[in-house]
Amino acid sequence: MKGFIEEFKTFAVKGNVIDLAVAVVIGAAFGKIVSSLVDNIIMPLVGVLLGGVSFAGMSYQVGEAMITYGVFIQAIVDFVIVALVIFMVVKAINKAQARGKKEEEAEEAAPAEPSEEVKLLREIRDNLRR
Questions:
Q1: How far is residue 82 from each of residues 32, 42, 55, measured CA to CA in Å?
Q2: How far is CA 128 from the centre of its chain?
Q3: CA-CA distances (angstroms) from residue 76 to 39, 67, 124?
Q4: Domain 2-129 CATH class label
Q5: Residue pair 29/68 in contact by the 8 Å Cβ criterion
Q6: pLDDT for 25-39, tens place per residue?
Q7: How many angstroms separate the CA atoms of 85 and 93, rounded?
Q8: What is the per-residue burial (b if ≥16 Cβ within 10 Å, else e) of 59-96?
Q9: How far apart are CA 75 and CA 78, in angstroms?
Q10: pTM more than 0.70
């Protein structure tokens, strides 16, 4: 049992698990922001463009059941916006990582400038040869 607890502690303290937990918390907060953006800004504008239609109130009654397809439409808009924003963030991160990689490769490929001491010693060597 003690080995199991030690193994779990090692797993829980690893950076990946902590990073995942932070990502979940930030993702939940981001989801609330996007939902607010869609509910309070985008959908009212879409409703105005469609002649004052409110998606939240769109529903259809079948017998005793109420099918609220407007909420479904709003969920689709939420998803599309979240997917678009995540795509743009991932694309920007990948571009920044690629740029950083190119800079590192350029630094590695370019020979280092000799130090002042080396330059001075070369100058002395060249003067002694004359």
A1: 11, 13, 19
A2: 61
A3: 12, 16, 75
A4: mainly alpha
A5: no
A6: 888 888 888 778 877
A7: 12
A8: eeeeeeeeeeebeeebeebbeeebeeeeeeeeeeeeee
A9: 5
A10: no
